[in-house]
Structure formats: C-alpha cells, structure tokens
Amino acid sequence: MGRNQSNGKFNYNNIQKKDKNFMYDNFKNSNGYNCDFEECNFDFVSFRGAHFKKCSFYNSSFIGAEFVGANLKGSKFKKCKFENTVFNSVNLDGVDFREAEFNNVIFLESDISAAINIEADDIGIRVFNEVPEIIISDELRNTVEGLKENKYIKDARIFDTKNGSINILTVMILLENFNEERLIRGLNTLKVEITREFHTLSYIIRLLEKMF
C-alpha cells in the first residue's frame, strides 16, 4: 500500500521510502506500519502523537526532530543520527538503537529500558524520569505565558503542556542555549514577528540564533 494523506496526517503501510527528504515536514498524529525509511532525512520534523510501529529508519537523520507522545514500538533506528533530538513520553518498547549516534539527546518520561542497544549512561543522551525542576524568574514566566497571544505559537503547543502549564523542558532547553536576558528579549520579538505555522522547538531556537 502507498501513502495516504488527509487533514495534514500521513499514513504509510508496508511501503518502502528510501533516501527521501522529509526535512521540516509535520508528522503530527501520523501513522506508519512495517515501512522502510532507509537513509531518509527527518531533520526538524515533529512526530507529535505519531505512531510508527515496526518500521526501519536505517541510517536516517533526526537532527532537531521531536518525538512527543509518540509510539515507536518495534521500530529500528540502526546507525541513525540523533542530534538535539527530544523524546518526550514516547513508547520505546522493542525499539532498536543499534549503532545509533547521539549528540545532546533528551529522553523525558520515556522508558529506555524497554528499548534495545541503548543505556541511560550512554554518551550524548540525558534521561529524565520526570519533568526536571528548574527555577524560572517571574519575568521569564510572564514572557512565556504571554506567547499564547500569538496564534501560531499557541497552536504549535511548544510552550505549554496538556493541562495548560508552562512546558518546563522547553524552557530548560532554551536556557541552555541562551542567557535569560537575551531569551526574554528574543521571545518578546518572536511573539510579534512569527506569522506562519511551525511545529518544533528547533524552529524557535534557529530564529533566536539569527537574532544573536
């Protein structure tokens, strides 16, 4: 079977998609089963709510990609490259990371013990069993909460959680890349300047980097 798309969702079943460029695509709530995505580019892709089970991503790239609430059960990521990648609340049951390359990759509330060929102390990854605790100034908190006034930022769901509270992981990552003063100034600018749809935190980081 081939690919069907409706309402912005991708549905792949038993297909082969080798050496394809999916950079910047939005795979939110998409589905894939028993598919071959060998040597594909998934840089800066959002897999929020996606279900890709028993798929092979051999030697593919996931720079700046984000897996949030995704189900990757039984999939294989042999020799894949993960850099500045986030796995948040992801089902990793039987997922194989054999010979994968990790650079600044975060696993939050994702049980890596259920995966294969990856350990919590592997170089290049950080594992958080629960949301980390960080101190946020009132000014930064107010700035982040004010971002919801921008429709596109609000729709991206990058800065908030399901219950409407601030996404602490997002703030933590941003503070690791920018000092608070610049971050506040940059976010206030983006609140006005972002006028298009986007899907990942990596997009925000790239815009902020251009400012500074």
From TrEMBL:
Q: Which InterPro entries match?
A: 5peptide_repeat, Pentapeptide-BTB/POZ_domain
Q: What is this protein called?
A: Pentapeptide repeat protein
Provide the species name.
Clostridium vincentii
Q: What is the lineage of its organism?
A: Bacteria, Bacillati, Bacillota, Clostridia, Eubacteriales
